[in-house]
Amino acid sequence: MRRGADAAGSLHTGRSAARLFxxxxxxxxxxxxxxRVSFITQVxxxxxxxxxxxxxxxxxxxxxxxINGYAFGDVMFLWALSALGFGLAGVFLGNATHLSRTIxxxxxxxxxxxxxxxxxxxxxxxxxxxxxxxxxxxILLYAFTQPLDPVRAxxxxxxxxxxxxxxxxxxxxxHSTTFFLGNAEEFAATASDxxxxxxxxxxxxxxxxxxxxxxxxxPAALIAYIPVRLVHSFDPVTMLLLLAGDGAVMLxxxxxxxxxxxxxxxxxxxxxxx
Amino acid sequence: xxKYVRVFAxxxxxxxxxxxxxxFRNIFFVVILxxxxxxxxxxxxxxAALSGFxxxxxxxxxxxxxxxxxxxxxxxxGIQEEVxxxxxxxxxxxxxxxVLYHLMxxxxxxYVKMIxxxxxxxxxxxxxxxxxxxxxxALPCGIVVIALGLLIxxxxxxxxxxxxxxxxxxxxxxxxxQKLIFILGGLFIPIDLFPQWLSGxxxxxxxxxxxxxxxxxxxxxxxETFLTALGGAVFYALALGGLAAFLxxxxxxxxxxxxx
Amino acid sequence: METVLSVSNLTKTFRxxxxxxxxxxxxxxxxxxxxxxxxxxxxxxxxxxRGEILAFLGPNGAGKSTTIKLITxxxxxxxxxxxxxxxxxxxxxxxxxxxxxxxFGQKSQxxxxxxxxxxxxxxxxxxxxxPREAERRIETLAETFEIRPYLRTPVRKLSLGERxxxxxxxSLLHKPEILFLDEPTIGLDVIAKQIIRDLIRRINExxxxxxxxxxxxxxxxxxxxxxxxxxxxxxIVWDDTIKTMKYSxxxxxxIDLKLESPLDLASEGVEILKAKGYSAKIEVDLSKVELDEVxxxxxxxxxxxxxxxxxxxxxxxxxxxxxxxx
Lengths: 274, 260, 326
Hints:
The complex is a heterotrimer of chains A (274), B (260) and C (326). With 274 residues, chain A is an all-alpha fold. Chain A has one domain. Chain A is 74% helix and 0% strand. In chain A, α8 runs antiparallel to α12 (220-232) and α10 (185-199) packs parallel to α12. Residues 1-8 of chain A have low confidence and may be disordered. Chain B contains eleven helices and two strands; from the N terminus they run ααββααααααααα. Chain B has a two-stranded antiparallel ribbon with strand order 1-2. The longest helix of chain B has 36 residues, at 223-258. Chain C has 326 residues and is α/β, with parallel strands linked by helices. Chain C contains eleven helices and 13 strands. Chain C has helices at residues 23-31, 64-71, 93-97, 116-126, 131-145, 160-171, 190-207, 218-224, 242-249, 291-301, 314-323, and strands at 3-17, 35-49, 53-57, 79-84, 100-104, 178-182, 210-214, 227-232, 235-241, 252-259, 270-276, 279-285, 304-310. Chain C has a six-stranded mixed β-sheet. In chain C, strands 11-12-10-13 form a four-stranded antiparallel β-sheet, with helices on one face. Chain C is globular and about 70 Å long. The interface between A and C is large, with 40 and 49 residues.
């Protein structure tokens, strides 16, 4: 039994964090399984949903060889990566998309009053069921379209995890504007998933100023195009820069949330007072 | 009949008032179109045409398919909410057709969304690839088929939402129909580019009338094309409308039998 | 007696931005805001001892919710001090979280689609309670709150009374030393209200948990609390025991009469509230006339079949306090 902050060791904190995480996952899965048929339909539905685009690319590639260096296999890699990344984000940190709503209804208070870091606690407490379909799709698509190679597979998993973190970070970042501007749910939803609209297309079709944007504001290059380059020819410098970039996005998100929370705690919110 | 027109007008006015959604929708439209343009520009490098489509035609084609897709009604998902929480029972005794009411509401919403999007699409496509030859000539007939395309898409949404009388989850059905329109219906690629064995069938399916036919009428207009597009659209509109009415009738009976 | 909570000269001012609808004007307001200052809490001071059951009252907009949020650390003050167990609640919010419990009406700690048992187990982890210990406590709480039959029923299927009992039980899992309750009996029927009040009293008596209750319900205040703090326009307008509130604040008595002939009474300080046929209801202002004099006069001039003397309803007392009357 603990009271107050525990100075007894980070091992304990680590263990309790791991236990909380796994508890949340089991808990959320349980909540999802409440409606078993719904669970299956959502997962299968999302799987089929994603599969449709394979036809598109097959038709396209049947007319051509490659698209500025991107072969059919590369596009499939992008899709597998995005699906797995998106799925992981939705399954484990699925509440990110509901941040605006939570702030506006005052439900954020529930998380503030619990003895865990508010942001993580909040993010963990919802799981998107259909995201399991994305995970399944990502893995299967990879298995069917990519060359068998443990290093490549390892990188694939790593990049998917990074993509998940970046997606969640983008969501937290954009939804945090609600702290300042009132209900920005639609804006945040559009802005945070905009990156996917780009990540699902071969990076080689973009050039000039657009490419610059894709390396910064809408980090599709960060989460998708550079990983494609790296699985073809790994290069530690690029890898480090990629990690730095991802880290920067996550930091920005965390910072935005903290600033927003400070604003929340001042009570000076837009519109309706508490 | 007048009451339905009023519903239509009301929904239309509602759309005009709500600025942020308008902005996001059109921003998304710009992004998507830009991505398409970047893609097809690379594909068309070193070729004049693909299966009879020039790059100009293809990009303009995509503006029309996306306009229809992005203008479809979002309020129709309210139907499944109503059915799920039982408030649909309130409407059972109202003196109007449930399906027609929602359809008119959807169309009011859609047609108002569509107009600025056509303008934006026009500007973007002109900016990216230049003007579409024959645009003005095709417009009168094209608009009719586009409007019918929206009608059909919205009818699909009504049908899917009505399935909530029987099924807890309707989103998967929505995804499936949406993807069929996206791929088989020619939203992402004109059916002309499909392999032979597929294109014949795809042309005749209802999905093609939500995307391919309206758009191809605009970009490569001919009277035959227009008449085929028109005929098929009317046929499927009636078929889907009938299906919706049928589903509602059955669903209604289900509610009454179960006591809500 | 140990002071668990003390508030001194607490002030909270908000800058409320004038909001106009629409995302774009919101954006505009961010760069060139036009705002007005609202003083929600204006220099209040009070302290709470361990084991008290305290009612915190005030009309809507009086500063109640703001004060609670300040005390629980959700908001930080503009000026003044708050100490809960000697800690600054805003700075030490997470440490404090282990020692306080909250039940706020609209914000539930229980997951809607799941049985309370699942939420309780999750809360056990959140509060770092050893899983076996958590099971023990859940068992005890189930017993005390009589919620065992519903533990495995999804929360959405429970009645309001059952849900509130589960909510309160959940808030006690980590054995908090202070429990903050916001309108816990609202929407409940008379019997359910009594059950909740009994449970709260029991927690207070058995575990010495300090209870901090906001309520609009006079019954809650009268039947459960021993002390009341009334806040209005951000200031404390009353801070004393309920007993004092009832007896010394309001010098009025209500007399119900059943007579054998219409009422004959003329007296200063007596207001006839209702006089119909053979029954009457009068209100006596004890600052103007002595009670025994009035009763004497009634008995002398009328044939009384039945007489009941009672205090004015709590609602009236409270609204008088709100209005600043004495």
